[in-house]
Predict the 3D structure of the following.
Amino acid sequence: MEQTYIMLKPDAVRRGLIGEIIGRIEKKGFKIVKMKMFMLDEQILREHYAHIADRPFFPEVVEYMTSGPVVGMVVEGENVIKGMRNFMGPTKYLDAPAGTIRGDLSCNDRENLIHGSDSDESAEVEIRRFFGE
């Protein structure tokens, strides 16, 4: 069974949307096999967001992602990586269709509620990064 890494970002936690989003994931038919709430630090964010760590807006990303706890999950299911990416909706909330997590629940692009791995390779790396071997 395919697995992916999903992270509910600080705004999802702050706004009390954990249950809503988890319920949507489960209703979709995917299974949450691991879950934990934790705080991020700049070191792990530099690793996780290595592709943007040298960009001028990276300090804002760090500020946002360390502003409160996140919920990390390993989610399992058939075609779960693509399925969750579609279900999350595009990063830009105004482009996210109704019925997607961002389309229904996001209210700005900077705080976009949720992260999901974009490939088998990134899922494997991210699951290891946040949950260990």
